[in-house]
Amino acid sequence: MLTEEMQMIRSFIRSIAEDHLRPLAQEVDEKEEIPRMHYQLLSEHRLYGMNVPEKFGGTNISACSHLLAIEEVARCCASTSVLLTTQALAIAPILIGGSEKQKEKYITPLATGARIGAFGITEPQAGSDTARIRTRAEKDGDYYVLNGRKVFITNGGEAGIYVFVTTVDKSMGNGGITLFIVEDGTPGLTFGRKENKMGIKGSTTREVILENVRVHRSQMIGEEGSGFRVLMHSLNHTRPGVAAQALGIAQGALDEAVNYANERKQFNQEIIHFQGVQFMLAEMATQVEAARRLVYYAGELLDQESTDVIKVASMAKLFASDVAMKVTTDAVQIFGGNGYMKDFPVERMMRDAKITQIYEGTNQIQKLIIAKQLLRR
Ligand SMILES: Cc1cc2nc3c(=O)[nH]c(=O)nc-3n(C[C@H](O)[C@H](O)[C@H](O)COP(=O)(O)OP(=O)(O)OC[C@H]3O[C@@H](n4cnc5c(N)ncnc54)[C@H](O)[C@@H]3O)c2cc1C
Q1: Domain extent at residue 49
Q2: pLDDT digit string (tens) for 135-192?
Q3: Could you count the other beta carbons within 10 Å of the beta carbon of residue 232?
Q4: What is the pLDDT of residues 192-230, one digit of tens each?
Q5: Could you point out which of 42, 124, 236, 334 has its C-alpha 20 to 30 Å from the C-alpha of 373?
Q6: Are 308 and 346 found together in one domain?
Q7: Which of 89, 123, 355, 358 best tests ligand 1's pocket when mutated (most atoms within 8 Å of CB)?
Q8: In CATH, what number is assigned to the domain containing residue 337?
Q9: 33 in catalytic set
């Protein structure tokens, strides 16, 4: 159950998302760009830092409230919601493994939205298998020299603060993984072309190239070789955000399908009176509500700092993203031929939903994580 405070937060964010984000969602998709006004809106309403301590620029309301914000933003504009989930992805490793100095210097501008963040894990040969990361970090006195290529990086070329996953010794597998904070403008940090994607088209995705990027050791998060633990812990914190994004997309598509079914007439009656359509809508609504319970449960576990979040975060991401894919596809069906047209929003929502089954660990990887938690040691 949502507390009264959370219900108020939800209706407030819903109203700003409906007034300011929904009207531009189609344009964001077509122009493949998020307007500056959307960045400002999230920042003005302090949506980036709802789960971040006040001393680092956040409002520290709760992880659950942050999930509500992502859900409500995604319900109206999935691309804009990626700003929230990616900012959380950049904040998490610094909050979990960073020094007080790093937190003050980097989390504050990320939590307030003064600077945009990005997190670079994926490489051409290392997607699900992070142990195969090749981006090298070589020690040179008080500095490290980073060399490698990251692919599919959200906010690549747009962000001011990057967190990169590197290895100090690739023969050590996960034991060599080390994280670094790199600021935009650091010599040797360059970007590839903007990827042409299926969905979340307003969000920028680029290759990021690190060529002799020299960073002081004070930019390292934690110790050499401590990165894998921080990385896994960070993803446990951020996956509920992707689940909330999927939930929002699914809810948005359900709302559109219900409205359309109440208005579209065939055989002299609104199509909602046909049992075939009613059954589809009933299943969609049930799935969305079940996903919502799991997403909010993951948020509660985050707020309680429970270790059960490892399993439940993956369950929430797995379930909510599958629901988003199913519900948006069924919404297109309910719209008939119109559903296939870009003039109606459900086509965009179906394309936007797909990514939630892929990034921050594919759903196959989520199943591995869940199963690992069920194994008797
Ligand atoms: C739009 C977009 C934005 C992204 N943003 C970022 C970002 O900001 N930062 C970042 O670091 N990355 C980002 N990514 C990368 C994303 O996290 C990876 O694409 C994802 O983790 C999968 O890796 P992969 O693409 O290499 O697929 P692969 O790992 O090659 O997987 C291919 C297929 O094999 C399956 N598979 C792999 N291993 C197993 C296994 N052990 N068991 C069963 N099935 C398996 C997968 O589930 C998948 O179906 C983004 C990707 C996209 C498309």
Answers
A1: 4-112
A2: 999 999 999 999 999 999 999 999 999 999 999 999 999 999 999 999 999 999 999 9
A3: 15
A4: 999 999 999 999 999 999 999 999 999 999 999 999 999
A5: 124
A6: yes
A7: 358
A8: 1.20.140.10
A9: no
